[in-house]
Write a structure and sequence with these properties.
By secondary structure, the chain is mainly β. It has one domain: OB fold (Dihydrolipoamide Acetyltransferase, E2P). It is built from no helices and 7 strands. The protein has strands spanning 8-13, 16-21, 25-34, 48-55, 63-67, 80-89, 92-99. The chain has a 5-stranded mixed barrel with strand order 3-4-5-7-6. It has a two-stranded antiparallel ribbon with strand order 1-2. A hairpin with a 2-residue loop joins strand 1 and strand 2. It is globular, with a radius of gyration of 15 Å.
Length: 107
């Protein structure tokens, strides 16, 4: 996790929609590799991987995000992901999710 990074989402609340911190941990729901740039600023970045992630702190929320994983990375549905700052594009910084480090069971 990157120190100070906060990920927020609109979630259903008692009186409508509430903005809530959903944490930086998520699970991968699905993904695809993009080969056609969606905007001129992304022309030099194809191919890239985009995923749909489910924040651990808000299981009813889905976030579409660039993934910090090369297109040939072996990904799995349900895989743990961690949010981090991505590249600057058009004066803003993208949020990206990367595969979380695998913790080995040392029993």
């Amino acid at each position: 996790m990157v120190s100070g990074l906060r990920v927020g989402a609109l979630v259903p609340g008692a009186d409508g929609w509430d903005w809530r911190d959903v944490g930086t941990e998520a699970e991968l729901d699905t993904w695809t590799v993009v080969h056609h740039p969606l905007a001129p600023a992304l022309r030099d970045r194809v191919p890239f991987t985009v995923g749909l992630v489910v924040p651990v702190g808000a299981p009813s929320v889905r976030i579409v995000s660039a993934l910090a994983a090369p297109p040939d990375t072996r990904l799995e549905i349900g895989q743990r992901m961690t949010a981090g700052p991505g590249p600057e594009v058009d004066g803003g910084r993208l949020l990206v999710f990367a595969p979380a480090p695998v913790v080995q069971d040392r029993r």
